[in-house]
């Protein structure tokens, strides 16, 4: 019997079509917020799935999906997937690292700059007709060049941001679960510091660390209190890293200068207190969103899925697996069990 693949969202159809020689594709024609029940129903009869950060999948969603062997997440972050439960179920997970690194680093740097130099606020002010006369003291921001950049989470994207910072003459401090090899630190011109020192010294702090329950609200009132009142905070990782009410308090109380946020805890809903503030730049989770990179992400996810289902040159060895443990005791193919 031919294998079947569920594609949870509209992705680039010409790229997804590469699955067709290998499997029947069940497409989703419109962007959809699938209920857990709908996800479980979609997974029940398929061998593989191509999903996005919008599609949470855990034990309950795969409980009645005996054929399912692989889930290819189109994204580098995979906190929408319960890795422990899916690994126990023998389901291989893949993600899309590397192909989005430079594009996402571009955006992180741009959002940090927009936040420091008040670009969104200035444009709104202009469009609102408030520019009656040029004035020397209008919308003054803080410098990026020569400032101290703090990077929390020094993976590939964090390193990409650090390399960009060198061109702006910034001093780069970072904190990470594990310290980078010295050669990489030198290449990134980045200095390792502990979490509190990072908070205390950064003029601009950028969050680029993967989300897990262990780092939920890592940036809370206590962390924000350690930052300079003149500092900016930029988040391109996951909304759950930041206590948004504490952030709104700090921004309102003059304890933090500004924030740039591409991700939100309840996205697509945005905390109304943040929406009401002038000194926040808000974007709708688009850091990896160049056309070329979004296409490359789908292409990598499709390659992963084709290999995970046992086809193509990498059969059985998908290029970017998340839980290689699932490969040790893979599920049997439907009909072979
Ligand atoms: C997007 O947020 C991703 O993790 O790729
Ligand atoms: C995270 O996985 C990164 O690429 O920085």
Automatic annotation (TrEMBL):
<feature type="domain" description="D-isomer specific 2-hydroxyacid dehydrogenase catalytic">
    <location>
        <begin position="14"/>
        <end position="310"/>
    </location>
</feature>
<dbReference type="InterPro" id="IPR036291">
    <property type="entry name" value="NAD(P)-bd_dom_sf"/>
</dbReference>
<dbReference type="InterPro" id="IPR050223">
    <property type="entry name" value="D-isomer_2-hydroxyacid_DH"/>
</dbReference>
<dbReference type="Pfam" id="PF02826">
    <property type="entry name" value="2-Hacid_dh_C"/>
</dbReference>
<comment type="similarity">
    <text>Belongs to the D-isomer specific 2-hydroxyacid dehydrogenase family.</text>
</comment>
<keyword id="KW-0520">NAD</keyword>
<protein>
    <submittedName>
        <fullName>2-hydroxyacid dehydrogenase</fullName>
        <ecNumber>1.1.1.-</ecNumber>
    </submittedName>
</protein>
<dbReference type="GO" id="GO:0016491">
    <property type="term" value="F:oxidoreductase activity"/>
</dbReference>
<dbReference type="InterPro" id="IPR029752">
    <property type="entry name" value="D-isomer_DH_CS1"/>
</dbReference>
<dbReference type="InterPro" id="IPR006139">
    <property type="entry name" value="D-isomer_2_OHA_DH_cat_dom"/>
</dbReference>
<feature type="domain" description="D-isomer specific 2-hydroxyacid dehydrogenase NAD-binding">
    <location>
        <begin position="109"/>
        <end position="287"/>
    </location>
</feature>
<dbReference type="InterPro" id="IPR006140">
    <property type="entry name" value="D-isomer_DH_NAD-bd"/>
</dbReference>
<keyword id="KW-0560">Oxidoreductase</keyword>
<dbReference type="Pfam" id="PF00389">
    <property type="entry name" value="2-Hacid_dh"/>
</dbReference>
